[in-house]
Amino acid sequence: MSNAPLNxxxxxxxxxxxxxxxxxxxxxxxxxxxxxxxDNFQNRLGVARNILSSRLVRLVEEGILVKRPVRxxxxxLEYRPTSRAEALRPALEMxxxxxxxxxxxxxxxxxxxxKGVSNGVSNRASNRASNRGSNGVAAGxxxxxxxxxxxxx
Length: 153
What we know:
The chain is 51% helix and 7% strand. The protein is mainly alpha-helical. It is globular and about 45 Å long. α2 packs across α4 and α2 crosses α5 (83-102). It is built from 7 helices and 2 strands.
C-alpha cells in the first residue's frame, strides 16, 4: 500500500464521502427494494436505532433518500429513494451479486479469477469498460493490490 494521499477529487472518494459507510449502503439497498419505514429498516438490518437514525438523516441531507409522511396529515414517516439512489442501483446490484457468488469459497473464487472466469457480472462490466484509471487498470477489471491506495483521514 502506498502512503501517498488519495486524490480527493476522484469519483469513488466523493461517492464514499456522501454515502458514508456499510450501514448506509445497506439502508439504500433496502429502500431500493421497498423498505420505507424506520422500524422495518431496523428489523430487516438489525441495526441500532441511534445508528439507523443518524444514517437516515445523512442520506436525506445528501438527497439520496427523501423523508415524507406516509399519507397526508400522518405523523408516521417513510423514507423513499430519490433518483440519486436509483442511480446507485446498478452498482449495488453488482456488489450484491458478487457477495452472493464471489464470496462463497475464497479459494474457488481466487482460482476462477486467475483463470479469467467470473460470475458473469464482472465479465460484462469488464467488456463495457473502455477507459483506464490513473493506475492503468481498466474500469471493471479484476482488482489486485496494484489497484488500491491507502485512504487516510
